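Section 5: illustrative case.
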């Protein structure tokens, strides 16, 4: 921590547990191999009034290690005024968001986790209010527009019809976002995502299972 510009480091394990379908970090088996000379990305959360960003993800070069505790120096030029290149930083293994190995050949490639970045349309109350998913169907995806990175999956997802926290179906707001963002709230339909266009499913809340519907 800097006395003049206080900050704390984001807990990578906690963040990954909160958003398992959109927030990916190296396996613990990889993080325990980090040593002097490697670069690790850390999440700096600022505790002062910043101009634009409340935090930044930046690279730190490891300079020493004791057990699972590390020391390093900031290897990025921060966007926000406050921290500076070369700032000493101490951190634990649980803070590591990403790794750039000093000697990549010494570390076998690890298969990347599947990211659910394709877009879907979903009742906003599923994301904002924790309303569980009840019904979903897949239609022909919308074409990818200029400037968009991730395609439309074609999935359309509705929250529980009679949920006390949700507006009536016709009054609900709709969000267009990554499937992973919905799965972070409710992953009960994960096994259905490879179903073909034209598929539709409804959830039986007594059994927790989905059944196909016309």
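Designed sequence:
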């Amino acid at each position: 921590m800097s006395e003049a510009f206080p900050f704390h480091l984001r807990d990578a394990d906690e963040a990954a547990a909160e958003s398992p379908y959109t927030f990916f970090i190296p396996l613990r088996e990889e993080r325990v191999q980090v040593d002097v000379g490697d670069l690790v990305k850390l999440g700096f959360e600022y505790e002062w009034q910043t101009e634009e960003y409340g935090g930044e993800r930046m690279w730190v070069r490891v300079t020493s290690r004791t057990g699972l505790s590390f020391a390093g120096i900031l290897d990025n030029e921060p966007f926000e005024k406050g921290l500076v290149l070369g700032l000493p930083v101490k951190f634990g293994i649980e803070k590591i968001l990403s790794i750039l190995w000093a000697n990549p050949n010494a570390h076998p490639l690890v298969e990347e986790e599947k990211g659910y970045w394709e877009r879907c349309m979903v009742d906003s109350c599923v994301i904002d209010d924790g309303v569980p998913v009840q019904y979903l169907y897949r239609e022909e995806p919308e074409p990818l527009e200029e400037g968009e990175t991730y395609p439309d999956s074609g999935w359309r997802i509705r929250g529980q019809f009679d949920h006390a926290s949700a507006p009536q179906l016709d009054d609900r707001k709709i969000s267009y976002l990554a499937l992973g963002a919905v799965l972070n709230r409710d992953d009960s339909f994960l096994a259905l995502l490879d179903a073909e266009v034209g598929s539709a499913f409804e959830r039986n809340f007594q059994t927790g299972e989905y059944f196909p519907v016309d």
